[in-house]
Amino acid sequence: MARIKNIELPSEKHVCIGLTAIHGIGRSLALQICETTGVEKSKKVKDLTDDEIAKLRKEIDNHLVEGDLRREVSMNIKNKMEINCYQGMRHKKGLPVRGQRTNRNAHTRKGKGKVVANKKKVGK
Questions:
Q1: Which class in CATH covers the domain with range 77-110?
Q2: Suppose 81 and one of 39, 71, 88, 113 were both cysteines; which one would form an S-S bond, judging by CB atoms 3.0 to 4.6 Å apart?
């Protein structure tokens, strides 16, 4: 079993797909890593040798992935919230940050609809 950056790679998948289980590595970066290390991208993860796994680990150490990447992203968001820029304000309010419309979508970001109590009509 290949374990890189404390992530267990799926053993039945090809190397280029299995590497995408690591946060911060997508398809294009996975292909680039396979190319630079000389590991065949169509090879299954379970068929990797210890030498190939070591090469992959060494190459992945050159990139910002997993905990370091998560920490940096959260620090960037906190910084924007502290300086009160537009994106920081949107993060604080829990609204979409990148210009999406909000009057009929954005339920994943805004949450469930808030119920507004209707006022009783005064009888005659």
A1: few secondary structures
A2: 88
